[in-house]
Amino acid sequence: MRTRGLARRSLEPHALLCHQSPVIEPQISDDELVAGVRAVRRDGASVRIKKRKRLRPTAGLTGSYFERVQLEIAGAKQKAILKQGELPYGPPTREHAFFATLAHGVPMRVPALYGIGPVPQNGGDGWVLMEALPRGRRIIEWAAEETPRALRNLAALHAQYLGAAPAGLVRPFTRDLAYIFSFLEGGIEALRQKYAAYPHFPRAVGERSLELASQLAQRPDIFRRAFERSPETLLHGDYHRGNLLVRDGEPHVVFDWQFVCAGPPAYDLAVFWLYMGAVNKPGFLRFFDRIAVVPRDMTWQQVLEVYCDELSRLRPDADIAAITSCADHALAWEPFRQLTYMGRGLDNFAGYMNFIYRDHRKIGGWFARWVGIEEGFRLYGEVFADFEERAERLLASG
To answer: Helices then strands (H, E): number in the chain?
Structure first.
């Protein structure tokens, strides 16, 4: 159910399915939005909030809150998206920090920032008001060159910060590894509870995967030693094709920076490759996109070759051997991240879960197949099957 980038449009008319568990709903006033825009612009321009509308269901597994906002700045109308990232059941997200301190300097196109809220006192993520992106190409419509192009863009990001990742970023793979792992057992237990509550819910993550994840979490040095061999860089943290906007003749727009962090370049590559088979296809009357899973465009080795060639061109001093040495560990790490919030994040889809897997299983099953929900779980199943092989190998060699 990886819907953040693959099926972004609102499904509001499906009211029967959209009853969700309460997502954290921040109380952000119009005056606060105006102040946030003025804090970014600093030119004294007039700012008015013309219209606001909450987007449902857009929380995803991480519980983010979204609104569509119509602005008027210096007399010009602007369309914006208000996002409040809040992850109450895992490590805090950091999109606010990215837009506040890093977005202006990265060597890639990111959503334009209109306004930003204050730093939360509780250490959570603040709100951002950013450009509402236009419709781009569906992944299944990408030209053959777009995927290698996305890899070269990622290499440019990593090259700029290689060996010099900003000090204020979280470092989940080394310094903060124990802190990140502290959320894992709670996530595993939450997923087991979901499986118990919904006997017909697809078991994309088997019990063997959960056991292996627990065993690896008890031996953090397996990861720490591997990741310490690699140079650090700025990581997007969730770099897959669903988080890229592609339009003919324009630079890719990279969005959804809530997992930004510092760490080994191989991790962004791992996320990119693991979810490469996920594509979006047009749904009924283009109302929303359907999820499908197709064979990956490139092998893991081809991904490494394209990326490493570009990184070497941009940074001849890059230690490619050190970067690729932790590839197995990076590929195994992504399922850890999913397990920290997957079980609890499914609460955001309580209406869907009840409708499809409990109350209306026949029509719900048809809907799940038609929209592609079952395909999404099939992809997760493949990711965790891959994880089991790697985890056993890492445990044996650690």
So the answer is: 14, 11
| Tokens read off for 348 | 């955001």
pLDDT in tens, 22-69: 456 788 999 999 999 999 998 989 999 999 999 876 667 777 889 999
To which residue do tokens 């070269």 refer? 152
CB 353 within 8 A of CB 364: no
Other C-beta atoms lying within 10 Å of the C-beta of residue 310:
20
Q: Quick check: helix, strand or coil at residue 183?
A: coil
- The tokens for 247 are 């339009």
3-state secondary structure of 166: coil
CA atoms within 13 A on the CB side of 79: 5
Q: What pLDDT digit, counting tens, does each position of 222-257 carry? A: 999 999 999 999 999 999 999 999 999 999 999 999
Q: Tokens 């060699």 identify what position?
A: 397
CA angle 155, 278, 209 (to 5 degrees): 95
Q: What is the DSSP string of 9-73?
A: S--TT-TTT------------HHHHHHHHHHHH-S---EEEEEEEE-TT--GGGT-EEEEEEEEE
